[in-house]
Amino acid sequence: MQKQTIGCVKAATAVLGDKWTPQLLRFFANEPAVRFGSIQDFVEGINPRTLSARLGNLEQEGVIQKITKPNTTRCEYCLTEKGKALIPILTAMETWSRTYES
Amino acid sequence: MQKQTIGCVKAATAVLGDKWTPQLLRFFANEPAVRFGSIQDFVEGINPRTLSARLGNLEQEGVIQKITKPNTTRCEYCLTEKGKALIPILTAMETWSRTYES
DNA sequence: CAGTATCCGTATCGATACTG
DNA sequence: CAGTATCGATACGGATACTG
User: Fold this and answer.
1) Are β-strands A75-79 and A64-68 bridged in parallel, bridged antiparallel, or unpaired?
2) What is the pLDDT of residues A18-74, one digit of tens each?
3) Is residue A10 within 8 angstroms of chain B, CB to CB?
4) CB proximity A67–strand C (7 Å threshold)
5) How far is CA A10 from the centre of its chain?
6) DSSP string, B3-57
7) Which residues of B touch A4 (CB under 8 A)?
8) What pLDDT score was predicted for residue B3?
9) Residue pairs spanning A and B at CB distance below 8 A
10) A9, A28, B15, B41: least CB-packed within 10 angstroms?
11) Is the alpha carbon torsion for A10, A13, A18, A23 positive or negative?
């Protein structure tokens, strides 16, 4: 999704509107910290290029935090407080989707 | 935004993820019924082609309802119950955006 | 007034191969 | 393992002119 200028929902849609992002956040919500490879395994179909882009966005938005383990190339991603605050919204969206699905 | 296959949030993001849609829904939320021209006036910058596409989507998703006045080309759009149920989510997104805006 | 038709630039995303 | 580079398809949306 292209960066939107949509008033007060701007930030939220800039984060949630991209393809894969909701799944990613759902996954993050259930794990304290995840690695790149784990995400690829869990979110089937996403390719590294796209995943990398999403993680970059989310980190820049302050929704997730990247922690690189010292002396390794290993790193982990986890939700920030800002990211955790997104979970209830995601849940509400899921509820809505299930309630009104045809 | 391209149609996504994102599990349980699918429907919600398919509706909310498009450019302009949040503003449109906000506008609908405050008016019992609106005409095409009013929307164009209110949502500055949207062009008829795009507005038409959004309205088509939203109607097809059952989020809004189109009512054509008999014997005229005039018509009005208003939220359905399904559409009204989206408002709290939109509000939550706005709150989140305002809370964490840099 | 309420759209539709056409054209076109750009953003987005997938596939795939490659790197430190 | 954790990405980046490159290429290409296509979806999205803006501008504009036109129609019933």
Assistant:
1) antiparallel
2) 999 999 999 999 999 999 999 999 999 999 999 999 999 999 999 999 999 888 888
3) yes
4) no
5) 16
6) PP--GGGHHHHHHHSSTTHHHHHHHHHH-S-B-HHHHHHHSTT--HHHHHHHHHH
7) 19
8) 55
9) 103
10) B41
11) positive
Amino acid present at A40: Q
Note the pLDDT of residue B88: 97
CB-based contact (8 Å) between B30 and chain A? no
Q: Give the burial string for B73-102 (b: 16+ CB within 10 Å, else e).
A: eeebbebbebbebbeebbebbbebbeebee
The separation between the first and the last C-alpha atoms of chain B, rounded to the nearest angstrom, is 25
Distance A74 CA to C10 C1' (A): 35
What is the reported pTM? 0.91
Distance CA A51, CA A57 (A): 10
For A14-95, the fitting CATH number among 3.40.50.300, 1.10.10.10, 3.40.50.12780, 3.40.50.2300 is 1.10.10.10
* pLDDT (tens digit per residue) in B13-70: 889 999 999 999 999 999 999 999 999 999 999 999 999 999 999 999 999 999 998 8
Terminal CA-CA length for chain A: 25
* Chain A CB contacts of B20 below 8 Å: 6
The CA angle A27-B10-B63, to the nearest 5 degrees, is 145
A78 φ/ψ angles, rounded to the nearest 5 degrees: -145, 160
